[in-house]
Every structure is written in C-alpha cells, then in structure tokens.
Sequence to fold (298 residues):
Amino acid sequence: MSVTVRVPAKVNVQLAVGAARPDGFHALANVFLAVSLFDEVTATPAATLTVTCEGPDADRVPLDRTNLAARAAELLAERAGIEPAVHLHIAKSIPVAGGMAGGSADGAAALLACDALWGLNTPRAELLDICAVLGSDVPFSLVGGAALGTGRGELLTPVEAGAFHWVFAVADGGLSTPAVFHEFDRLTAGTAVPEPEASPALLAALASGDPDALAATLANDLQPAALSLRPALADTLAAGTGAGALAALVSGSGPTTAFLVRDEEAAAKVAAALEASGTCRATRVASGPAPGATVLPA
Ligand SMILES: C[C@](O)(CO)[C@H](O)COP(=O)(O)OP(=O)(O)OC[C@H]1O[C@@H](n2ccc(N)nc2=O)[C@H](O)[C@@H]1O
Ligand SMILES: Nc1ncnc2c1ncn2[C@@H]1O[C@H](COP(=O)(O)OP(=O)(O)OP(=O)(O)O)[C@@H](O)[C@H]1O
Fold:
C-alpha cells in the first residue's frame, strides 16, 4: 500500500518584509497564492527512511535527511513514537531553489502522506505546528488557496481570491533564501524599515479577481535584493512586460520570475516571447488559487 499527495507551488502576490528579529527571521506580511504547478510525494512502507526524486531538476534535490520531505517524516514519527519506516518518492515539477516553495511543498506533502500511511489521523492544528517547525513557507503548502502569512510567514489567515493566470520564467540555477534576506538587510541598513502590513488595495484586488487591479498592487520587498544578486533578472522582467504581461515580479526570494496575464491566450503569447528572448531557461503556465496538499485517490 502507498499514499500519494499532490501539493502546489506558491507565488507571493505581496511580500512585505520588516526588520530582522532577534532570532534572525524577518517579520513578514506575506500574501501567498497557491498556483497549479504541482509536486507529488508518494509514501510507501520500507525498512528505513529513504528518499528518491524524479524530474528535470532532480539532481539538485538532496536525498539525505536534509530533504524537507524526510525531515517531515522524522518529525511526525517522533511525535507518534514510531520509526519513520517509509520510502518517499518525489515527482518534482516545482523549480528547485526558485522562490516557489518547492522544498516546503514536499515537506507538507510528506507529512500528509505519512499521516495517512501510518493511520495517525493527526489533528490539523498539530500538522500545522509541525509544518511551522519545518519552515516558514510549509504551513501554506499544506493549506493552499490564498492566505496572509504573518509572524515569519507561518501564521496563516485565509483570504479571498478570484482566479488569475500566470506565466513563470525559470532561471538558470537557484538563489539561496537566507542570502536574499541578508542582501535585503544590506540594502536597507541605516534606513528605518517599516512594520510589514498587508495592503488593503491588494487584498481587495485579489478578492475581486480583476487582473488589472491585482497588477497595479503586486509588490515584493525582496525583489531589489534578488535583482542585486542576479541583475540579469531585470532582462527577464522586461521581456515579459514587453510581451504584454500585465505585471512582472520576482517570485518570493527568486530567481523565478512571475508574470500576471489576462487569460490563457495571453499566457501562451507571453510564454512564447519569454522563451524566444533567451532571458530564461524555461517557462511554465499556471493559474491560482490551487488547492493545498491533497491525498490522491488510490
Ligand atoms: C521568501 C519566502 O519564500 C516567502 O514566502 C519565505 O519567507 C521563505 O520561507 P522558507 O524557505 O520556508 O524559509 P525558512 O526555511 O523558514 O528559513 C530559511 C532562512 O530564510 C530566512 N528567513 C526566512 C523567513 C523569514 N520570515 N525571515 C527570514 O529571514 C532566514 O535566514 C532563515 O534561516
Ligand atoms: N524536497 C526538496 N526539494 C527541493 N529542495 C530541497 C528539498 N528539501 C530540501 N531542499 C533544499 O532546499 C533548498 C531550497 O530549495 P527550494 O526548492 O525549497 O527553494 P525555494 O523554492 O526557493 O524555497 P522558498 O520559496 O520556500 O524560499 C535546495 O537548494 C535544497 O538544497
């Protein structure tokens, strides 16, 4: 018997970043939108905890205990007082180290898959606590849809969202999330960093489903830091807006870039132009909100 869980990537439609806290994390007002790029994690009984991964970027995914899927299985087993006797197979479609919470997604998916495989029926609130231990983005991967994350991003309040179409441009290589936050600190040193707050105009635009309104309010405070570490991303952003995207921004800590488009037709046009521009490695078309981690029927 095995259990497979499907889990979405995310884009941050607003990422407001405050000053570094004493614990090193930054206070955030993080408006997450889950989008229809999915990883699948399959949990199968095994003698010991093992991880395998397939997909175009599989060689960049660690297969040891640092994999967030493995850590999720260990934490859940420890809590239940059992051995993590499971094989986890990751079918990876979400860009690796791309700012789309791919590792976080696998952590949330493995947690849900092991909970079902081991028949634990762990209460949702406890699963969310384990997610928060795994990483700031992990609770949202479990929940999906659209949500405001406060604290370091782990404290979630669901928000309303209409349907939106996106194109994502995958960059060569990844960006380290801590390195991007450090660059944010360097760029903002000596300035008063305001308390992060969700924008009422952005939340209204998200709820309305109006892509023009959302395009006017998208904001990512990590974008200058990501561009500072990877200046060529400016060319990708310009190529997408030049091709008719309503708005362009870096996804989370990058280096994936996200392009909001009016409809599927515009998505195909912008994706083709981005591919022809030579400013990215590949493109992906998706829409959101997408559901959070879900057990697939056997
Ligand atoms: C950039 C985002 O993806 C936006 O959703 C997240 O804030 C990052 O979430 P994540 O990858 O789950 O991050 P974590 O695994 O919790 O933290 C990794 C590292 O990112 C930095 N970090 C992360 C979250 C946060 N609120 N402040 C931070 O400064 C810290 O250096 C931390 O050591
Ligand atoms: N299951 C996993 N899939 C991908 N990377 C993983 C996984 N588990 C651990 N990692 C490690 O985490 C690093 C960041 O990968 P990930 O794909 O989660 O980045 P990200 O999408 O930028 O994250 P975020 O958007 O949450 O900041 C990788 O370089 C890899 O070393």
